[in-house]
């Protein structure tokens, strides 16, 4: 009677070893082959918006004023990183590019305190311009 459990155990172990694969045999994947997506067209980026700090650069050049644009960088609390004027300037350029401008005449960039929602804030203000090459 004691031999029966030992024989069953030996039979189960030998049966499991028959199911395992040899490491030499390649394993065939049962997953479906990944679908190849068509190549996406390359997105052309708009030309960068140039920042002009001196209005005398515009003398003699035909341009169109597209409106006022701003860029902001906010320090939400005292523990956050301080506001950054270059970040505010870059955001002003991005907002100008949304208006199809190719230049921004920068009026001012300053760091202020007491703005609702910000401990301190860097703000850049300028005019979005479309300068003609004529």
What does this molecule look like?
With 134 residues, the chain is of the alpha+beta class. The protein has a domain at 50-131: 2-Layer Sandwich (Translation Initiation Factor IF3), CATH 3.30.110. 23% of the residues lie in helices and 29% in strands. It contains two helices and four strands. The protein has helices spanning 3-19, 85-98; strands at residues 50-52, 63-75, 103-113, 120-131. Strands 1-3-4-2 form a four-stranded mixed beta sheet. A hairpin with a 6-residue loop joins strand 3 and strand 4 (120-131). It starts with a helix and ends with a strand. The relative contact order is 0.20. The model has no long low-confidence stretch (mean pLDDT 83).
């Amino acid at each position: 009677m004691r031999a029966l459990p030992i024989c069953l155990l030996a039979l189960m172990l030998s049966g499991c070893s028959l199911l395992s694969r040899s490491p030499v045999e390649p394993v065939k994947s049962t997953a479906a082959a990944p679908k190849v997506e068509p190549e996406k067209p390359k997105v052309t980026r708009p030309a960068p918006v140039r920042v002009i700090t001196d209005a005398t650069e515009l003398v003699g050049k035909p341009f169109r004023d597209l409106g006022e644009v701003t860029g902001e960088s906010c320090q939400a609390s005292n523990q956050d990183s301080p506001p950054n004027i270059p970040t505010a300037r870059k955001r002003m350029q991005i907002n100008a590019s949304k208006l199809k401008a190719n230049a921004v005449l920068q009026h001012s960039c300053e760091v202020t305190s007491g703005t609702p929602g910000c401990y301190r804030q860097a703000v850049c203000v300028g005019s979005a311009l479309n300068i003609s090459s004529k």
